[in-house]
Amino acid sequence: KAAVEQVKCALACIKYYNPCVFYLENPDGRLRLEEVMGKFERYRHRVSYCQYGSGESSIIFHLYVLSATKS
Predict the structure, then answer these.
(1) For the chain, where are the alpha helices, taking DSSP H only?
(2) Global pTM value
(3) DSSP state letter for 51
């Protein structure tokens, strides 16, 4: 429960500051199943660390917006 509260605080900061880029990393655990992350489902990606010699994976929720302006 404490971890979910910390995530809620992080999401409140993201909402307040409205950054064009954010990343939330969670080892392949329960965060993806929590109701608070429901609206971020489209930003969820699973990554694997196998190329670094580990069979572990992690979930990353991110928003990365690339805006290009024409000069």
Answers:
(1) 2-17
(2) 0.69
(3) G
